[in-house]
Give the backbone structure.
Amino acid sequence: MSPHSIQSRWKIDETRWESLWDEIRNEKVQPDNVHAMARVACEQFGSTLAICDDTLDKVKTAVSETPRPATVRFLGATVVHPLNDPATKLVKSIEGQRFLGLAAAVAQGRLYQAGFSESVMEWQIKLQRDVIAAEGHPDGSMSFFSQSAPSPEMVTELVDVFHQLSKDDSAITGVTIKATEAAAWVVAFIEWCLGSPPSIYMGGSQQPLSQPGSVITLIITKTPRDQLKGLEVTIHDSLNHRDQLTAPPSTKPFFGMATIGNYGKWLLEQFGFSGASLDLLHEALDNAIPQTLESFQWVEFDFSEQEHRVSTHDSCALYPLPDTHKIADVYSKLLGLAKTPKLAKTRDGILIADLPLVSQHLDSLCKNCLCSRCGRARRRKTICKETEFYKFISFITVEITVLSLFRSPDLLRIRLSREHESGGSLQQAVSQLIKTGHTTLESTVIMDLLQWARSMVGHKVATGDKGRNIMVSSGHGQVIYPSLFETLNIEKHGYLGLTSHRGILIYEGVSYETVTADNGDATQDASCELLQLSSSCPSQVSSVPLNAFNDLKVFWKVETQDNRKLSSKRFK
């Protein structure tokens, strides 16, 4: 759709326009809470926006394809996108659709299913492969600049430029944009609003990613001086006049949400695995994953004492993770394998460093590493390439392990991030395990699986004891919680399985972000068992399977708290 075919049917004074936009860009207005302002104001603002037909279709689909409400029975709560929420009302008019189109890009919330963040992800990959690496930055030294989020001022200037382009009497003949920070976001936003990407140059390169017919040219600047400028926009008109707009640089990375398959593509690109190096990665993972699983399988999780100990009765032990078939399936989906791998038990004493491709790669890394440990220091602190490699492998191993906990991983949207909050001890333990074959699983490691899972889906992660008392978390249109609380069915394999639903958590008509366990006894360790089964636990370990909670009946008392939190307590 041509920008000139987009009509502006409403005249809005500049003060009102800026006030409304300030609310949106600072995420005070979300698609599911615009009832706080007059809907007509949103529609009037939307009438000034340049949003292409393809994006409008995506917005309409995202709003209309609302999943059925789900019931969280043990809380008496529901997970739902309200049928008559403001987004549902706004999507009925073309002006409202345009407003939602902008909201989907800058404050995703209700509309993450529209796919803007995945468009940004695709451009991050394309710029990294076709532009940045081709210009002599194969190590991704400029990746931050192509992957950061825009500053609010940058978005404001772009919206204003597209508004001018969309006028029927526009005299604009071309627009030149200079950007480094958030370059991928800028390209995706141009395509999101106007229907086609710009022609792209890297600095002074004469080999652009050309886009025939586009009036917009994006120049990704390379010098440190240019990078400090943020965004520069030059508008050319038919009278050879030039208007120049500027915006300060960004300071934050972009964290979008993607499906499991698209997240896997992004992850491989981030860690530099492509072509022949994929064989190296799979050789390492095919050994690292079984080795990690074995370390968990030889550990019991005792609800009565919240301790971890080596199992002396392997046939009776409960394992927090699902069986290897489920984990192999998740591995295949994440990394886009044509065939599901077979995860076999590792041979005693074999580490990934002993594998042929990995061994060659580690030798190469050591020869080219400039860190002090590898003996090639150049009077500067440098990250050890070998350490970084083990960090990459352990991160992907943990990602696969945690994703396997979800009952329906295909329905998830995963946060685009190379690290997750509160997951440091878990990743370090796995890294140490695959490097040396020895590690000590601390009492927090198993619970860190749940913390990592919450971070993966973009939920707020509390640190320390508070984090381990979280039962249910909600955010980014997703709600997750351990299935055990709902079913009270402690499975032999996968008792830490997670249930996920699309929507927001509603209790007595109000939305909440977290449900925490109120254990009642402040003297207890805050990481004590959420189900409080200690009074029913046997005093002696049995050598055969034993149902220690045959007569257990659980009732939940739910109380509301401030800051969109619920507190729950279990009663027998």
Observations:
- Residues 257-571 form one domain.
- The longest strand covers residues 172-179.
